[in-house]
Amino acid sequence: MTKTAHVALYDTLADWEIGHLIVELRTGRFTGQAWDVVTVAESAEPITTMGGLRVLPDRMLDGLDPAASDLLILAGAEHWDAGGGAVWTDAARRFLDAGVPVAAICGATAGLARAGLLDDRDHTSAAVEYLAMQPGYGGHDRYVDARAVIGDGLITAGPDSPVQFARATLSLLGLAPEQRLQAYEDVFHAADARSYPALVQA
């Protein structure tokens, strides 16, 4: 049975932050397992990404059941830094409580910080100072200075680490061995062509 990743849609979504991840999930080109990538929004109206792409959601948030999903993906967007996104952090809480992974990058980590979802999990972001500015954040002791971090079903990363974000998520999902994931990062982050054979091996 094909697994499903749900991608949260909202205006000014930071396209580049989740691009690597959703491509690898949808195509399965380096994992051998293609997923369904389904977009979710608060309304049926199209959203406009930060890069200017207009995207029509596949389904509405109010009908999203974690039991029918295998992953929730939250990208950065302007509303996170404006204190918004509570409906999405509520969804993230439902997913995590149900044992379904959540992958959050950039500003989405600020929303999770405000919701208290980082307090008891290892996590990262753009910088610990960024999260410290968020009301209600109590996870200073669990902050890890790394490009991407997996903590109790939650993947977090800063805006400069889309490749590491993809790698960590694929790792948590068990979609590729660590040797291949290292090759993936070497190719797409370090531009190391010598790692390509290890990436594409069966």
Defining traits:
single chain, 8 helices, seven-stranded mixed beta sheet, 202 residues, DJ-1/PfpI, 9 strands, globular, alpha/beta, two-stranded antiparallel sheet
Task: Tell me about this structure.
By secondary structure, the protein is an alpha/beta fold. The protein has a single domain (4-175), classed as Class I glutamine amidotransferase (GATase) domain (Rossmann fold). Helices cover 34% and strands 16% of the residues. It has 8 helices and 9 strands. The protein has helices at residues 15-27, 78-81, 86-97, 107-114, 128-132, 162-172, 178-188, 196-200, and strands at residues 4-8, 36-41, 47-48, 54-55, 59-60, 71-74, 102-105, 148-151, 154-157. The strands form 2 sheets. A 7-stranded mixed β-sheet has the order 5-2-1-6-7-9-8, sandwiched between helices. A two-stranded antiparallel sheet has the order 3-4. It holds the Pfam family DJ-1_PfpI. Residues 4-170 form the DJ-1/PfpI domain. It comes from Jiangella anatolica.
Write the layout of secondary structure elements.
Layout: E1 4-8, H1 15-27, E2 36-41, E3 47-48, E4 54-55, E5 59-60, E6 71-74, H2 78-81, H3 86-97, E7 102-105, H4 107-114, H5 128-132, E8 148-151, E9 154-157, H6 162-172, H7 178-188, H8 196-200
Parallel strand pairs: 1-2, 1-6, 2-5, 6-7, 7-9
Antiparallel strand pairs: 3-4, 8-9
